[in-house]
Amino acid sequence: MRLIDVTAPSLQAAMAVSRERYGDDAILVSTREGDGEHVITIAIEQADTPPPVSAKEKKSSLSIEEIEESCYEILSGHGVPAMLIEEILEKVRNFPAGDVETSLCEALREVFSFNPLGSFSAKHVVMAVGPAGAGKTQVLAKMIARAMIKDNQRVAVISTDTQRAGGLASLLAFANVLSFEVRQASSPKVLVRMIDELLANHDAVLVDAGACNYLDVKDLAYLGEFIKPSKVEPLLILPAGLDVQESWEQAKSFRAMGTKRMIITRIDGVRRLGSFLQPKDKGGLAMAEFSDTPNIKDGLIPAGAQSLTKLLLSKHHATKPNVPE
């Protein structure tokens, strides 16, 4: 049995990081707070099972040159821009762990920001925002399923999508399966009132915004009208597989509206993950969760350096699809 301290900005985030790094078998020993941080002490039996790696990566003591070469191969294969690859490799050189997985994981931890959702709070209302087809409603269903099944929370959802035909229908379909309350807010003032009403007898309230075209000034302005008075946290739902520049520009537009975190969707449908990697020193959004399955239950993976490393390695070693020439 080994004791490990996990530090995060909140108790919920620390618990989420613990689950992401060490799984559900970790035993909570104690919690403490200080200097704006929460620290939990957990006990574990053994380390997590590592992701699949090649024979070269399994070698216990690779040279820094071999590690750098392997990391370059992995990152370039994912379509990561050259300048960002160099930034990551610079961190790899500063962390000569002797194996690719550990070196890459620690480099990613230095370059990117991770901030998992954790458990929902009545004082913190999240609004799912993003482009059409990103999977916002499905992600909300996954968030609700986790809150209801794993955290035993009472959850309600408010839709502000009054413009898209059938925008409420898919949300109601999920509500029929998971049994949660759904309301529709036709204006920012109505949204504020509904949030207050629902929080009186629910543990958490989530908001499903309509699709927003980041190139349409009217779309952005309309979304902003709902965000500001309601004091919700806009959470960007961004699909993997976009053009790198497109992802950056979308993130930049939503960041200007107060967005600080994003959930990456459709990971199961792409082979390259370089499009959404945004370094924190360039103002990149923090990664909150990864969605790599259409299944609603257990459909989200808390984002962290270790889970991102696993995804990069598993995609890198996956068999290439048999596509006709």
What does this protein structure show overall?
The chain is α/β, with parallel strands linked by helices and 325 residues long. Helix content is 40%, strand content 18%. Strands 6-5-7-4-8-9-10-11 form an 8-stranded mixed beta sheet, sandwiched between helices. Strands 1-3-2 form a 3-stranded antiparallel beta sheet, covered by helices on one side. It starts with a strand and ends in an 8-residue tail after the last helix. The model is unreliable at 47-53 and 55-59 (pLDDT under 50).
Summarize the structure.
The protein is an alpha/beta fold and 325 residues long. Helices cover 40% and strands 18% of the residues.
Topology overview:
Layout: E1 2-8, H1 11-22, E2 27-34, E3 37-44, H2 55-58, H3 64-77, H4 82-93, H5 100-111, E4 126-129, H6 136-150, E5 155-159, H7 169-178, E6 181-184, H8 188-199, E7 204-208, H9 217-230, E8 233-239, H10 244-255, E9 261-265, E10 286-290, E11 301-302, H11 305-317
Parallel strand pairs: 4-7, 4-8, 5-6, 5-7, 8-9, 9-10
Antiparallel strand pairs: 1-3, 2-3, 10-11
Structural class: alpha/beta
Strand order of the largest sheet: 6-5-7-4-8-9-10-11
Stretches where pLDDT is under 50 for at least 5 consecutive residues are 47-53, 55-59
* Percentage beta strand: 15-25%
Overall 3D geometry?
A: globular
Number of strands: 11
CA-atom Rg in angstroms: 20 Å
From the N-terminal CA to the C-terminal CA, the straight-line distance is: 54 Å
